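User: Here's a chain of 181 residues. Predict its fold as tokens.
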Amino acid sequence: MDQPGQSPAPARTVARRQAVLAELRARLTGPQPAPKRVRRPRQHVTDLEPGDVLSFTVGAETALFRVLRVDRDRTGTVPVVGWLDWEGTEPPDGEAIRRLAVRVQDDVDLARYDMPRAPRPLIDRLLTPMPRGKDWRAAGFVLAARVPPVPEDATRESWGGMHWESLAFDIVHRLGGHELT
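Assistant: Prediction complete.
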């Protein structure tokens, strides 16, 4: 049991090791416990569809987000949203919204305390709400419009994942540091 070139293990250590191995052998070769029923993971289902446009208002400013696609995996369905490059108080009409590009993040990453990094589109994958977590409505988002999906949106890469509450918090800080009410 000892490695070549090592001194032999003390007798007390060898005896302890043999006792543990004997106990393990008895557990593995003896009667096995009854099968346990494994609970299936909770499947989250979103009612959002590609092309849905959500708005989030902070003070007098409104941010628009378009659902680019809906990813399906073993935990359910999660929307991937892009923050649209638009500023204002009242969202434009459907066709004008459809033509809006996804906003590109400036060279400062707010989550990393002003560390410079390359510009990237503001696209996030919204994770399944945690138990007792908020969905998009409870986090303060409103369905502003439903527009036909933009074909290239389906292949856009998301740069991160967050929960709806985290996205709302991020918007509040990016739109001027207002506090959530």
